[in-house]
């Protein structure tokens, strides 16, 4: 009967455990000297050897002929524990036996002396899953255990274990196993099993295992259906796109070529690749690019995706730190939302479109990335203006613009000569003692100064435009907020119960022409005015200056010539 590789190659001695020498040496010395603890707590991620070391320790303390702290594996105790026939070594899964009744039953059995071995050993896996009442029931027997009793607890989440339990156990932390160690172990097993495993494929499987030997053996077992286990065989078995295609996808994103990027993605999707896996691979590439960008000296040891230095160097040179971080946040955001999406493919496509068009985002990270990109372009001299709207309004719809004549400078203002004036215009108003002297000084009669009145376009009782802007600023996008004080680009006033917002045509007009933005202005105006006010957007054009007319000369009726 076929047996899975992770079961067939489970270590039987401490010396066979991979990558945990700091723990196995300590346990071997305790077995040799007989200075054993009554309770152990093994901590670490999945597949790092916690349960394996617990079983080896249970055999070692009961072995009749231990060899340098290792169980011999041939005595009745070792063989019985291995095949599960020794009832004094009990392995419990706390995830399914987490109630207080289960622990009470364990306490009642634990007081009895072992029947066939020296010590009764309880291995409790995933101990953090026990309930609070179960932990309290376990606490008493951990505090004062019988001489023949040993507990070995294992957990992946130390923070969920009560401090009262931790203080009564000897703790050992299992670390993630290095990729080279796992790859070497896989090559050894492949040789024993007569698999043709390439070194690159072994490294890829080791990276995918994320520091766990059990996961690595399971992946190797999955790939063993191929006669030769190479990179393509692993990509196919794991549903991965591969480094080359992922880098090609990233290159299209940096070129802002949305069409090419979506076609590449669709090709991978048609090949059976999972959209979530593709985004995960893209996130891994961005992560390695970031490591190359911010830590170039130690990048090789930090890289986890197996990309070559040339690819990472090229991508790193085309992106700023802010852009890389922004892209990673975008990918992670869409990857998280994919779990609730009815169409993962559509979600992945939205992610790629957002990455290609980096002007769409409004978050702080995305705005910082834009600023960083502009600074880089300006410093390198490759700055290009932002693309204008590709769909301008038809020419026939544009309002006719009145072209005024250039205004005269103040010092050259026109003063009419006496001959240019109509004498009848002043006949009724001229006093008898007045006279006009050609070329004389023109002075207006002394009149009482009118009371100063504030200049405002706001009707009485209506909020001012600057107050509306201040009220709505907190809910507006950053680029709109920064342009509110620019009266040459944005203006607003309330007329007949409607907030009329005028914006210059172009990109800024498109940013204002959104329902959510206009709604924020409407809400602010309504709150200030105490009545419902709707916002209306229109284009802002330069107002034409009217030419001076002869009617303006009537002002000279009030002028006295002396």
Give an account of the 3D structure.
The protein has 562 residues and is an alpha/beta fold. α12 packs antiparallel against α13, α14 crosses α16 and α17 runs antiparallel to α18. It is built from 24 helices and 12 strands. The protein folds into 4 domains: 169 residues, Rossmann fold; 60 residues, Helicase, Ruva Protein, domain 3, CATH 1.10.8; 138 residues, Zinc Finger, Delta Prime, domain 3; 75 residues, DnaA, N-terminal domain (GMP Synthetase, Chain A, domain 3), CATH 3.30.300.
Task: Give the strand line-up of the largest sheet.
Answer: 2-3-4-1-5
Sheet/helix structural class: alpha/beta
Biggest β-sheet description: 5 strands, parallel
Overall average pLDDT: 80
Write the layout of secondary structure elements.
Blueprint: H1 5-8, H2 21-33, E1 39-43, H3 50-62, H4 76-83, E2 89-93, H5 100-110, E3 120-125, H6 132-143, E4 149-155, H7 163-166, E5 170-173, H8 179-192, E6 196-197, H9 199-208, H10 213-223, E7 228-229, H11 231-238, H12 243-254, H13 258-270, H14 275-294, H15 299-302, H16 309-317, H17 321-337, H18 344-356, H19 364-380, H20 423-427, E8 442-444, H21 465-472, H22 478-481, E9 490-495, E10 498-503, H23 507-512, H24 515-529, E11 534-539, E12 559-561
Parallel strand pairs: 1-4, 1-5, 2-3, 3-4, 6-7, 10-11
Antiparallel strand pairs: 8-12, 9-10
